[in-house]
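Protein modeling request. Please complete all fields; requests missing the sequence field cannot be processed.
Requester role: graduate student
Desired output: 3D structure, token encoding
Chains: 1
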Amino acid sequence: MTVVGPFGLSVRDQALEADVQTGLAAVEAGLLDATKSDVPFITEAAQHLVLAGGKRFRPLLVMLAAQFGDPYAPGVVPSAVVVELTHLATLYHDDVMDEADVRRGVDSANTRWGNSIAVLTGDFLFARASHTLADLGPEAVRIQSEAFERLVTGQILETAGPQEGRDPVDHYLDVLSGKTGSLVAVSCRFGAMMSGADESVVDILTQYGERLGVAFQLADDVLDIASDSHESGKTPGTDLREGIPTLPVLRLRAAAAAHGRPEDLELVALVDGDLTDEARHAECLRRLRVHPALEQARRDTVRYAQEARAMLAPLPEGYAKSALAEMCDAVVHRAG
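Delivered output (336 residues):
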């Protein structure tokens, strides 16, 4: 049994381990190649987050999904490079929107070079992803463009907030399906599709990826409250400080509205206050960490992970299926 990929995923088969490790190494080389420019400064900025590491969650899913066809098919590695480049590009933009200081344990690009360079570097990565994607054929371009539209739509809906009368939690879960679930779903879809897997397998893995992606983001929401910077690689409470309505906060608001407990109303007022003040921010984190809303968000994470696991049932038994099921467990473990 060897540990590979994010969260210490266990691979119990030597052949699968070799395929995954070889594939991820090829993706890493592809990322470095795709982020090179004739302008040294652009290379430095574009490779900033590549070199910082990361879980390579999406490329790993591509490699595992490809096991249901020919994992050595020529489109598998380039498609993994595409999804990771797209993901990296969104991180540059997210950090500008969130005014984040730290990403993957290093200074965020906007902290180091300013917002304009960070945004333009994200655009550069999108361009390089499109360049690689063009070689994979029109169907791949269509799939990626639809996913990217959903991703951006989710980001816009998150910024705009729920419409009048819409349950904020339901709205938020829809946001996550687009903002995070879409690209994770495409990772699984590309892996299966590029490997030549049956269409039914491609559909199953796409649905699995969508649910796993939501669970993954919900785990991030929990980590934003519950973790320290060493665990998450970014400043704790970043979303909280910026007023981004993550699930623990939405669950807190729902509890306060439903029951009107003074301690809940007081914590909501603290959340809505000036959290640029370090003492208030620390107090808010401390109280949220022991509030039932955080545990409810953990249960929501478990629910989506269990739905993802259930989607795998029709797939043939084997080490690849077991590894995908373990990914669900790993996401839940990540949320504590």
